[in-house]
Design a protein that fits this description.
This protein has 387 residues and is of the alpha/beta class. The chain is built from 14 helices and 13 strands. The strands form three sheets. It has a seven-stranded mixed beta sheet, with helices on both faces. Strands 1-2-11 form a three-stranded mixed beta sheet. The chain has a three-stranded antiparallel beta sheet with strand order 10-13-12. Helix 3 packs parallel to helix 11. The protein is globular, with a radius of gyration of 21 Å.
Length: 387
């Protein structure tokens, strides 16, 4: 089979299964509104949960940082890309979360890939929640360690795997809030089990940090858990991009020696770090935004319970509506866009087969009337959609 034939066949299979992905350029779509082809849509697909991507203090901090440091970092952190502002922000994150150290990464995907690749050896084992993010599962598959996946959010299933003998070390990985289902992991139970069996726990709290816990410290803080490895990302509630790994001193020094994503990638621009510092200050003072987000989520769930759609158990900003059939999910998303709402259909392989869905995201930037428009539109568009 030639390269061309292989590529054409793979694309044809995706189109036939209604799983072909496309990018649609927009003229701004980070927060409440998205503009595409000169039409403005209410945006229910962005992860900017607190609306900080549009916050004037965050924008001004990035501008001041660019004026002071320029728009690039000039190299990896091991060469020239690690500035005083990088060091300061790492210290601020560590203090905020109660860890000895924090290390900045260019993205959450890179952070997850880096830590698994650097830590794991052939005699080790990774125990991953079945619905863990693709960045974790892909890194686990490509690591030399054996991968075992446990039933989603089931501590008993994890315990059975932990009890199996092993020559090496075990790393258990999960998310604080799951990106496609919106439900929260039972972190206290998982951490108790991992400690009991001498395993480390890694929690990716991309969708919990900023919106859960005191001062928005996240899922782990809310459940009074301090995992050995905590991954925070800045593309959701922080309204920016990038990530950090929080850990102890020895692990941080180890990652600085062996985490190739950290060593060989151009560092995050200092101007971006300035914006992240401003976003952190906003998050720490954002009880009013978190209250507004909670009210918007409650308003949606109350109204959606009257619709002909099955709600998941999510109480977070991620509110999936499971449709099932790929084409039906696409059709419903298009009907909503025709009504001026930007909603995205998520299909396999991102989610399990037969669970195509609308992944709705509620934010603090939404107004009550936005939620009502969404509910009315869902009610009006649901006719003829198989579930």
């Amino acid at each position: 089979m030639s390269w061309t034939t292989r590529i054409d066949q793979a694309l044809a299979e995706r189109r036939l299964a209604s799983t072909f992905r496309q990018r649609l350029p927009n003229s701004g779509g980070g927060s409440r509104w998205l503009t595409q082809d000169q039409r403005r849509y209410l945006n229910f697909s962005a992860n900017d949960y607190l609306g900080l991507s549009q916050h004037p203090e965050v924008i001004a901090a990035w501008q001041r940082g660019a004026a002071l440091y320029g728009v690039g970092s000039g190299g990896s952190g091991h060469v020239t890309g690690y500035s005083l502002v990088h060091q300061q922000f790492e210290q601020q994150l560590a203090q905020w979360q109660g860890y000895p150290r924090a290390l900045l990464f260019i993205s959450g995907f890179a952070a997850n890939q880096a830590v698994l690749a650097a830590l794991l050896q052939a005699e080790d084992r990774i125990l991953a929640d079945k619905l863990s993010h693709a960045s974790l599962l892909e890194a686990a598959v490509h690591s030399p360690a054996q991968l075992r996946r446990f039933q989603h959010n089931q501590p008993a299933a994890l315990q059975r795997l932990l009890e199996k003998p092993l020559a090496g070390e075990t790393l258990t990985v999960t998310e604080g809030v799951f990106s496609m289902d919106g439900d929260a992991a039972p972190l206290a139970e998982l951490h108790a089990l991992t400690r009991q069996h001498g395993s480390w726990l890694l929690v990716d709290d991309a969708h919990g940090v900023g919106v859960m816990g005191t001062q928005g410290r996240g899922s782990c803080w809310q459940q009074q858990v301090r995992p050995e490895l905590l991954v925070l990302t800045f593309g959701k509630a922080f309204g920016c991009s990038g990530a950090a790994i929080l850990c102890d001193d020895a692990t941080a020094d180890y990652l600085l020696q062996f985490a190739r994503h950290l060593i060989y990638s151009t560092a995050m621009p200092a101007a971006q770090v300035c914006a992240l510092q401003a976003a952190l200050t906003c998050i720490q003072q954002a009880d009013d935004l978190r209250d507004k987000l909670a009210a918007n989520i409650s308003r949606f769930r109350t109204g959606a319970s009257q619709l002909a759609f099955a709600l998941t158990a999510s109480s977070t900003a991620i509110q999936p509506l499971i449709i099932g059939d790929n084409q039906s999910a696409l059709a419903l998303a298009q009907r909503l866009r025709d009504r001026g709402l930007w909603v995205t259909a998520i299909r396999p392989p991102t989610v399990p087969a037969g669970t195509a869905r609308l992944r709705l995201t509620i934010t603090a930037a939404h107004q009550p009337e936005d939620i009502d428009i969404l509910l009315e539109s869902l009610n009006g568009c649901s006719h003829g959609i198989s579930q």
